[in-house]
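Protein modeling request. Please complete all fields; requests missing the sequence field cannot be processed.
Requester role: graduate student
Desired output: 3D structure, token encoding
Chains: 1
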Amino acid sequence: MQLLIIKNYKELSKAACIILTKELKKNPSSNIAFATGKTPKGLYKELIKANKKHLINFSKIKAFSLDEYYPIKKSDKQSYYYYLHSNLFSHINVNPSNIHLLNSEAKSPKKECSDKHCPFHNGFGMHGRTFDGAVIKMNMQKTAIIEWPRFIYLNKFERYEKRRSRIKVHKPDCIDLKVGDNVKVMETRPISKTKNFVIVEVEKK
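Delivered output (205 residues):
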């Protein structure tokens, strides 16, 4: 680990921008979790300036948020969705399909449940990554397996290769679904050795 001592906030923001620029040149398809609040605003301004000068490229990154209020409208100025779009995403060349933010407008299931791992009825905490996928198997109690496609860039052949990711996710008692349904899942603290995601939304076909 390298410790940097920077004389002021403005220089700190510039230094952080340089570090991220170097990292994206080495790994253009990096996964980046963006923070909110006052502290990163200087960095975001530097990133926007660098992007406009074509010094940094965000077209291949996958962007995530660390957390979000719930429930809150995305248009609410207090939401992290609004913050990240107004302070960064709307001003850089990030691919909208690669922005994965927690859904603060997810509808609570109509059914009540006493599942201790339910984020809607028992306040089970969610944070980190979010994914959209299709249910391919659910023959285990309160567990489903979801799958989604992803593309890996092969430098040797200068092309993308399609692969698939699969994970086990927790299905709260209040959520009804079947194989083939498209779902949104969010990261949680570990539920078991193989599960740290929970289903929060179902899109029926």
